[in-house]
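note to self — DONT lose this again. spent like an hour looking for the file last time. sequence + predicted structure for the chain T wanted, 295 res
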Amino acid sequence: MKKIILLTTILIASCNNEPTQGDYHKLELQLKNCQADNKELKNTPENLLLKSQKLESEGELENAEKEYKKIVEKFPKTKQAILATEFISNREANRKKLKEEKERKKRIGYKALKEQTTVQDAPLTYSFKNIQLAKRWYFDRYGDRYHYRDSERGAKYITSNVTIKSEIKDPALNPIYAFKLENGVLRMIAQLTYEFYRWEDYGSYLGNSADYSNDFSRSSTITFAVGAQLDENEIKDSPIFILMRKSQCIQRTENTYSRPVIKYIHVGCDNEPIINLDEALSDFHTIKILNINKL
């Protein structure tokens, strides 16, 4: 009120004397300060609460939340702040619930992927057995001997024995991957490796003699052991999908310096680190779903 009287006095005085530019600047500054003071006087917890409640009743929940947060920030120990905190907490809980429901609906869609342990992908037919998580992966057996790999600490192997029947003499094999479901998409976490399940003897394992049972040009059916190491933190709380791509890029190679001499390796495989449900349905066969109860 004093400032308004002062401003009035200045205006009356200026009628008798020509005001200077300095008077104008002074008057303008005082008006701005007065407006700021009036605005601040209106920002009481009571007025802010009334404004917040009005926005809430009108359905302007986002703007209402901003005003409620101002009360908590400026007047944290008032009864208005208690009411504001309650509204903010409810909003946060609702957002969390909506997010979880959205994620649940996304997961449910992946129930369209059906496990199949026998898969036909011409010219090959795959039969998977003993799909499991294990600390040790066995392969390259001969006689009563075998080779194995033990997983690192905090990890396990996804392993399976797979018998492949081929209609041709030198087929490329299909790549197999482990995908983790997160945020509504599948993220690749591992690519399974092909090893031979068994050799005729140690000599054939070394490459000193032929093993026709592991040669598609001599045998229509070969059994492999496939596996990949998975981080336990990646797999403990989420569905894990073992998928086989509907394309063949795993090639047979021979290297006299490797053991065994014959291996199937990934050559030119088109790896996609992230796929969606439509891509999983159209481009992959679903072999196994780990933690299927979490869908």
